[in-house]
Automatic annotation (TrEMBL):
Listed Pfam families: AA_kinase, ACT_9
Catalytic reaction(s) noted: L-aspartate + ATP = 4-phospho-L-aspartate + ADP
Domain Aspartokinase ACT: 378-434
The name this protein goes by in its record: Aspartokinase
Signal peptide: none
Record-annotated Aspartate/glutamate/uridylate kinase domain positions: 2-276
CDD domains the UniProt entry points to: AAK_AK-HSDH-like, ACT_AKiii-LysC-EC-like_1
EC number: 2.7.2.4
InterPro entries per UniProt: AceGlu_kinase-like_sf, ACT-like_dom_sf, ACT_Aspartokinase, Asp/Glu/Uridylate_kinase, Asp_kin_monofn, Asp_kinase, Aspartate_kinase_CS
Native species: Hymenobacter fastidiosus
Domain of life: Bacteria
Family to which this protein belongs: Belongs to the aspartokinase family.
Annotated metabolic or biological route of this protein: Amino-acid biosynthesis; L-lysine biosynthesis via DAP pathway; (S)-tetrahydrodipicolinate from L-aspartate: step 1/4; Amino-acid biosynthesis; L-methionine biosynthesis via de novo pathway; L-homoserine from L-aspartate: step 1/3; Amino-acid biosynthesis; L-threonine biosynthesis; L-threonine from L-aspartate: step 1/5
One term of GO molecular function: kinase activity
């Protein structure tokens, strides 16, 4: 069993959908997980926002624009009139459900119903193309029949495994299944979703539930790169990463992978392979429980951080001080990304400033508070075994002209985190690329990768 997830750009046009059959065919059973067509979720979010604001006319106009777009795609993808007619009936039913929500003030449940339509439409169109136009066999599995959240709004792994097995049971002779990413039901049975990046998460959850041999995440880039290709030229895909290394990169800014998406696969030891639909012959990146020997494999950067420094003489030899400090953030449901301490001060970062004024007001009860906004965490990931001297020296040599706000090293064998001003981010990524990946060993690795 393999689980193959295709992102929005991979199903973004009729042309892209026509390219998928060659990628999904192969030996063994396969479950294909599809995202919404690129741009659809953003359009649906915009429609829901307009309805929340009472802009019914504008929302209705946007719904009709989206409907016309899907009709064009359907007719291009499905030139056979009978196949197109049947698919268009289903499209119209989906859009009728959205239009129906414009008559009354939009509820949270109504918004989730709107957001679910993207994946329902993409799987409908591709399934009709694969079976109706190509004459191939494939079973459409509604994700709403087995994907479910628990009372804490977390995926209910036991429920998913049991109900996926139940849904698959009548099709023991079938080899190919198509289902939706992102969407699910909540503990009350209402339509819900796994939030942004949820299609990757769906694939990992389904892979774990089906005890898959491999999970493939197909996007428009050939794996996780050693640096940000939007900022640095000449980056290259990393051949192998451990689950922990991949999780660090995803959390600290590698956009190709959602931070939560590999956790179910990691728990079950299922390899995750990142592949490129535009370049399917490329080896991509393999994420597993194994790691290579490279000290530093990749650099990622996370923007939008706020640094907070609390200085207090009360810290000195005072047990319970840090607990009291952290309880401030817990009360305001704000996560901490990075922390460093000294005898009289604590510095930390947050990426959600929603409750910053209230947090600062409470923190001033502990001592002097300093705040720096527009900060970026630069994360260096690899096999950073503490006994392996030299990797930190290369990092700090490269960054010798970059002002450093905070440094975190030793909390993980896979991560060095450095806080800098966002204005210095591009320069930092460039000098790290030169200092870490232009070494002879890195040059040799890059040559092998290409």
């Amino acid at each position: 069993m393999k689980v193959l997830k295709f992102g929005g750009t991979s199903v973004g046009t009729a042309e892209r959908m026509r390219a998928l059959p060659t990628l999904i065919q192969g030996p063994g059973r396969r479950i294909v997980v599809l995202s919404a067509m690129s741009g659809t979720t953003n359009a649906l979010v915009s429609i829901a926002r307009l309805l929340y604001e009472g802009e019914t006319t504008a929302a209705t106009y946007q719904i009709e624009i989206l409907r016309q777009h899907y009709l064009i795609v359907a007719r291009e993808l499905l030139p056979e009139p009978a196949v197109a007619s049947e698919a268009i009936q289903h499209l119209d039913a989906s859009f009728k459900s959205i239009f129906g929500l414009t008559r009354n003030p939009l509820s949270a449940a109504g918004e989730r119903l709107i957001l679910a339509q993207g994946e329902l439409l993409s799987t409908l169109l591709f399934h009709r193309y694969y079976t109706g136009m190509l004459g191939e066999k494939a079973t459409l599995l509604p994700a709403l029949d087995f994907m479910r959240l628990d009372q804490n709004d977390e995926p209910d792994a036991d429920y998913i495994a049991q109900h996926l097995a139940t849904v698959l049971a009548p099709y023991s002779a079938e080899q190919l299944f198509i289902t939706q990413g992102y969407i699910c039901r909540n503990a009350q049975g209402d339509i819900d979703n796994l939030k942004r990046g949820g299609s990757d998460y769906s694939a990992s959850l389904i892979g774990a539930a089906a005890q898959a041999d491999e999970i493939q995440i197909w996007t428009d880039i050939d794996g996780l790169h050693n640096n940000d290709p939007r900022v640095v030229k000449g980056t290259y895909p990393i051949r192998e990463l451990s689950f922990d290394e991949a999780a660090e990169l995803a959390y600290f800014g590698a956009k190709i992978l959602h931070p939560s998406s590999i956790l179910p696969a990691a728990r079950h030891g299922i390899p995750v392979r990142l592949l490129n639909t535009m370049q399917p012959e490329a080896p991509g990146t393999l994420i597993s429980d194994k790691t290579g020997t490279e000290a530093i494999k990749a650099v990622a950067a996370k923007d939008g951080l706020v640094a907070i420094k609390v200085k207090s003489s009360r810290m000195l030899l005072a047990h319970g001080f840090l607990r009291s400090l952290f309880e401030v953030f817990e009360r305001h449901r704000t996560s901490i990304d990075m922390i460093t301490t000294s005898e009289v001060a604590v510095s930390l970062t947050i990426d959600d400033a929603t409750h910053l004024p209230e947090i600062l007001e409470e923190l001033r009860g502990f001592g002097t508070v300093e705040v720096d906004e527009n900060q970026t965490i630069v994360c260096l990931v690899g096999n950073l075994i503490q006994a392996d001297h030299g990797s930190a020296r290369l990092v700090f040599n490269a960054l010798q002209d970059i002002p450093l706000r905070m440094i975190s090293y030793g909390g993980s064998p896979n991560n060095i985190s450095i806080l800098i001003n966002t204005a210095d981010k591009a320069r930092a990524l460039h000098v790290l690329n030169e200092g870490l990946f232009r070494q002879p060993a890195a040059q040799s690795q890059m040559a092998e990768t290409h």
